[in-house]
Amino acid sequence: MVELIILFPLFLLILFAIIEFSLIYRAKFTLNHAAQQVARAGSLNNACMGAMDEQLVRSMTPLYLKRDPDYLSFTKVQIVKREAIKIYTDVDVISPSLEIFNRFKEKIPLYPAQISDCASKSYRVKAFKPVDILPNDNLQFRSQNIKQVKVKGESIDINIQDANLLKVQVRFCHRLAFPVIDMILDAIQRSPPGFNTDSIFYNNCINGKATDLNSWQGGRFIVLSAYGIARMQTPIFKNSLKDQ
Question: Which residue range(s) make up the domain with 142?
Answer without folding.
Answer: 14-242
